[in-house]
């Protein structure tokens, strides 16, 4: 069973209180560590101008790079060390779309069983690319955050992020099996149709809407070290469990456990 995970790899500045660090990031990057452990048959496809960023992935033989003219840069600012649910985020809003022609040669001879899409802004996946990926007729799981992000106020080369629903989003979401987002994004998105809508809320847990609403408790952790990428980790763990036959509740509980383990350590999820 082959899983294709697509989205940008990023250069991130992480600010926690007064401490600063530079790291590799992006949803596809964080998810690859979970897939490496729990869903070994995967391929990550990333768009960036900095090919060396893939050296931070758990297995670079499972990464394909789409070289572009720019890279996504993010600033993740956590002003209160004791409340990592609170985050201020800025981005350069790189315009480096993943095009249908970028993917055709990579995917044409693969037997694909599921696809994970991780846009970081609405330029990453044009409509033609989404329609091409839907043509494989396999489950598609989408982290919707990028499709809701708009540049707001500019500071040097970065913009603050404003969430806004754009008009053609319903057409893009049509046929998507699973949508992943947080409570702020859910408030902007409003009503949509999908088999599973997974809404995370940090330390308050998560809820999954699939006909009925299923509430998932957050798993307490011994220490809070680094919350960047926790939502991406949750998503990858949930998908891994679902594709291996877990039901919604089992998959949500598993995802909560794995994201809690990630929260206890700096950087991406590692089992030891």
UniProtKB/TrEMBL annotation:
The keyword Kinase applies. Keywords: Kinase, Transferase. The keyword Cytoplasm does not apply. Residues 194-267 form the Carbohydrate kinase PfkB domain. One of its GO terms (molecular function) is kinase activity. It comes from the Archaea. InterPro entries: PfkB_dom (IPR011611), Ribokinase-like (IPR029056). Pfam families: PfkB. This is PfkB family carbohydrate kinase. It comes from Methanobrevibacter oralis. The lineage of its organism: Archaea, Methanobacteriati, Methanobacteriota, Methanomada group, Methanobacteria.
């Amino acid at each position: 069973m082959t899983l294709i995970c697509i989205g940008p790899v990023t250069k991130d500045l992480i600010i926690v209180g007064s401490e600063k660090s530079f790291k590799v990031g992006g949803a596809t990057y964080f998810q690859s560590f979970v897939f490496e452990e729990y869903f070994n048959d995967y391929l990550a496809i990333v768009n960036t101008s900095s090919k060396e960023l893939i050296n931070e992935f758990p297995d670079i033989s499972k990464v394909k790079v789409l070289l572009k003219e720019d890279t996504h840069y993010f600033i993740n600012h956590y002003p209160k060390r004791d409340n990592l649910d609170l985050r201020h985020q800025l981005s350069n809003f790189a315009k480096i779309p993943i095009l249908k022609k970028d993917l055709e040669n990579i995917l044409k001879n693969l037997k694909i069983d599921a696809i994970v899409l991780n846009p970081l802004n609405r330029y990453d996946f044009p409509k033609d690319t989404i329609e091409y990926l839907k043509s494989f007729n396999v489950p598609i799981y989408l982290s919707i955050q990028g499709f809701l992000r708009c540049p707001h106020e500019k500071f040097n080369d970065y913009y603050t992020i404003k969430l806004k629903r754009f008009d053609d989003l319903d057409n893009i979401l049509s046929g998507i099996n699973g949508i992943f987002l947080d409570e702020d994004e859910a408030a902007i998105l409003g009503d949509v149709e999908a088999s599973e809508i997974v809404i995370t809320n940090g330390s308050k847990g998560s809820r999954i809407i699939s006909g009925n609403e299923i509430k998932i408790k957050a798993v307490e952790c011994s220490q809070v070290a680094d919350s960047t990428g926790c939502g991406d980790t949750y998503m990858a763990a949930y998908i891994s469990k679902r594709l291996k036959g877990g039901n919604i509740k089992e998959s949500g509980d598993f995802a909560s456990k794995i994201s809690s383990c990630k929260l206890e350590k700096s950087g991406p999820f590692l089992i030891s």
